[in-house]
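Recap for those who missed Tuesday's class. We walked through two folding examples back to back. For each one, the amino acid string is listed first and its predicted structure tokens come directly after. Nothing is annotated here on purpose, so try labeling regions yourself before you check the end of the notes.
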Amino acid sequence: MAILSRSDVEHVAHLARLGLTAAELDRLEGQLNHILDQYAILARLDTEHIPPTAQTIELESILRDDVVIPSLPVEAVLLNAPAHEGGFIVVPPVLGGE
């Protein structure tokens, strides 16, 4: 597996417009090389019989089932409206006009 040199890390930091100090570059070089070492270990694993997946853990819906239930009768809703007419709530106009 290829090893990232200090100049590789400086180049990537420059492309990403990161102003890193010498100490940060040293630390990042070590961390990135450690990640590449770990990837090399994983790349040696036999995954021939493992089906491809986009999710590593089972997903479960946390939402409740959408169940139809009776709602309030129109009369009860209109009792809460400041103004109503013909079974509808009356509101001030929003777009122009009076």
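Example two. Treat it independently of the first, because the proteins are unrelated.
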Amino acid sequence: MLQRYRIRWTKEGRTRYVSARDLTSVWERALRRADLPIAYSEGFTPHAKVSFPDALPVGVSSTGEYAELTFAAPISPERDLGALSATLPAGMEILTYLTVPDGAPKLASMLRATLWELAWPPVDAAELTELLRRRSDELMAADHAEVLRRRPKGDRTIDVRPAVIALATATRRQPDGSGAHTVLRAVLRNDGPNVRPTDLHAALSREDVAPPNAVTRLAQGAPVPDGVREALSDEVVSLVTDVDAEAA
């Protein structure tokens, strides 16, 4: 009897450079090492039934990746998915799982919005935070925000504004306490125009703000006033980051 599980997993450290094309091979190798009865597709070139609803840009970190795994025989999810997590490369870790009942909606339909975090180096943090707050307010008040997306096959203009649900900017202390840096969190729609953090940065920067040095997809799920309600756990992942460094 086939069993399906949906999982939330991370893609951090060096694994953020694993391309979407290579991702399936990484998971197939991990499943073989964990000796789990993953189901395979039919045909001349069978593939493990592991599906990923949305490709992450290469070089971007994530604590909000999702996948659906179909097993050909029953497993003990806590034990066996834990073993699978242990066989994945460092930086990939299964955070939670959910059994998929018959007739459940597609996974992609549950991932209606993404909470992104963009972080800049600790240089002129207070000034940058204030600038991005002001421009975020201007963006939210605008009807349109067109940016030029450069692609090898030809540049095109896209409107960022319809995808932006909420923005919040703060100055946050470095984890080691060595200084403060600017952090911007954004809730962007998944069920509309494909707008990425690079497009959002282009709309906010006006060519005088350097790109962030780190971008992280924090979680995906349903948009709520406070952030995003994570798809598998129903936990609300907050749009508002930690207390500002100036007030700490």
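Answers for example two:
Helices lie at 20-34, 77-87, 107-110, 125-141, 197-205.
The two ends are 55 Å apart (CA to CA).
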